[in-house]
């Protein structure tokens, strides 16, 4: 009997210990005071959070617009830092990848907090880096598409959209902008030779000509005006990093070295050059080809877009929080 009681006590303690560990692992790792989503992260929440952040961190964040979407939604840019060197970070390019917008907004708040408090983030002095490098975040390049995915057809042309969606009434897979153009096949880097569907579609149609969509044109115009030292485009999914677009010699060595470090920071796989497209018309491809500077596409999450929900944000923040400070450090040390 005594042995049974002792055994029962041990089992109970182990159970309680297991519950304690479970609660610890379930605890939120990053407590954003402003940026927080319950079910998804749409354009309206983006807009509200941007202006709340600007108000909460006076002088630390400047919110502007670089243009409007087809349906008239603002393409917001959030600027941090006072440094003369520049980094541009974009997300929400593909409609179904709205999680990248939520990640960028979460990182903006994280950096603002460390800047204001003068704290280091994973060993990186955020405030000092922002005195050397200015960062421009464009968290949602495709607000119309995101709205379709998250909020449905609304008063849009139902028949047209279902036709572009190949008969499907579920728009969760929609990747293009509202006109059925893939905004990451729009840039003038081998555009003519880039694969494409023949007509507007929920995915993989490159348009009639490069930059013929207001969203892609605005991004290109903004980038040309900024002349950034580096760009990052966040996408989903695969937990991989694309860096190569026909670079050679010193540019190849430079971009590979940086890419390997980003891979170590995130735990994501660096895509080998032989596995990269030689012909493409994506934002990163265009930037690398035209500017001859470092550009990266970071794909978060191993799972598909329809298998990832907002609860994954802590993990994505943990994997990516040091990427931008690291790249700022690289930029700050680079010679013009």
From TrEMBL:
SUPFAM superfamilies assigned: Zn-dependent exopeptidases
PROSITE patterns xrefs: CARBOXYPEPT_ZN_1, PEPTIDASE_M14
Keyword Protease: yes
Domain Peptidase M14: 39-336
EC number: 3.4.19.11
Organism superkingdom: Bacteria
Residues making up the signal peptide according to the UniProt record: none
This protein's UniProt keywords: Hydrolase, Metal-binding, Metalloprotease, Protease, Zinc
Pfam families per UniProt: Peptidase_M14
Cofactor: Zn(2+)
GO cellular component: extracellular space
InterPro entries tied to this protein: CARBOXYPEPT_ZN_1, Peptidase_M14
Family stated for the protein in its record: Belongs to the peptidase M14 family.
PANTHER family associated with the record: PROTEASE FAMILY M14 CARBOXYPEPTIDASE A,B, SLL0236 PROTEIN
Protein's name in the database: G-D-glutamyl-meso-diaminopimelate peptidase
């Amino acid at each position: 009997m005594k042995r049974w009681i002792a055994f029962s006590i041990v089992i109970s303690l182990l159970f309680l210990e297991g519950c304690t560990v479970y609660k610890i692992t379930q605890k939120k790792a990053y407590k954003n005071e402003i940026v927080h989503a319950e079910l998804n992260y749409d354009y309206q929440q983006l807009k509200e959070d941007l202006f709340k952040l600007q108000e909460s961190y006076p002088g630390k964040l400047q919110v502007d617009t670089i243009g409007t979407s087809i349906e008239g939604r603002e393409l917001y840019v959030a600027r941090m830092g006072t440094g003369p060197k520049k980094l541009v970070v974009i997300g929400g390019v593909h409609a179904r990848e709205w999680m990248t917008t939520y990640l960028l907004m979460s990182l903006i708040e994280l950096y603002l907090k460390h800047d204001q408090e003068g704290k280091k983030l994973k060993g990186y002095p955020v405030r000092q880096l922002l005195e050397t490098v200015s960062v421009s975040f464009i968290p949602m390049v495709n607000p119309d598409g995101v709205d379709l995915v998250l909020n449905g057809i609304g008063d849009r042309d139902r028949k047209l959209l279902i036709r572009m969606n190949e008969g499907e009434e579920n728009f969760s897979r929609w990747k293009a902008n509202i006109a059925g153009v893939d905004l990451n096949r729009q840039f003038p880097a081998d555009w003519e030779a880039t694969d494409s569907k023949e007509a507007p579609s929920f995915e993989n149609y490159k348009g009639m000509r490069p930059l013929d969509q207001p969203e892609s044109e605005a991004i290109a115009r903004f980038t040309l005006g900024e002349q950034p030292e580096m760009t990052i485009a966040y996408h989903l999914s695969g937990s991989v990093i694309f860096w190569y677009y026909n670079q050679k010699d010193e540019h190849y060595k430079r971009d590979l070295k940086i890419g390997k470090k980003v891979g170590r920071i995130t735990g994501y796989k660096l895509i080998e050059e032989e596995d990269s497209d030689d012909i493409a018309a994506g934002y990163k491809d265009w930037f690398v080809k035209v500017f001859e500077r470092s550009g990266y596409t970071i794909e978060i999450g191993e799972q598909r877009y329809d298998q990832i929900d907002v609860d994954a944000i802590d993990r994505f923040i943990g994997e990516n929080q040091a990427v931008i400070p690291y790249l700022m450090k690289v930029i700050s040390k680079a010679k013009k």
